[in-house]
Amino acid sequence: QVQLVESGGGLVQPGGSLRLSCVASGGFFYNYAMGWFRQAPGKEREFVAVISWSGSNTYYSNSVKGRFTISRDNDKNTVTLQMNSLTPEDTAVYYCAADLIRRPDGWFNDNNYWGQGTQVTVSS
Asked: Quick one: CA torsion of 56, 54, 61, 123, rounded to 10 degrees?
C-alpha cells in the first residue's frame, strides 16, 4: 500500500512562493509517474503537474505553467512542487498523487494513491 505524506503548505501573500514536498513509502516509487492535484472550496479536484518516473518529462496545467516546477528525487522517494508568483486563485488543498496514468483527456489517479493534502492559502 502506497503512503504519501505532504508538507510545506501555509499562508503566503500574493506574488510569494511556497515549496511543497511529498514523501512516498510502501510502493515502487521509482516506477510511478508522480504528480500534484488541488481542490479549491466548492470546486472539483484538478490536475496541477506530473513528472515521469525518470524525471525527464513534466507536464503542467495551463493555469500554473511557467510559475510552478515539479521535481523528484528517487533516492529519497520525494516529489516537490515549487510554486512561484502565487495568486489568490492558487488557494486550495494540494494533494500528492502516485502512479498517474495519462489518457487523451488528461492525467488520472486510477489507483487512488493520495496524500492527506496540505492547505495553501494566498492572501494579503
From this structure: -110
Closest CA to 107 of 45, 14, 54: 45
| Chain segment 60-103, per-residue pLDDT in tens | 999 999 999 999 999 999 999 999 999 999 999 999 999 999 99
Distance separating alpha carbons of residues 63 and 48, to the nearest angstrom:
8
Residue 93 main-chain phi, psi, to 5 deg: -90, 130
| N-term to C-term CA, the chain | 40
Calpha distance 118→124 (Å, rounded): 19
pLDDT digits (tens, 9 = 90+) for 50-59: 999 999 999 9
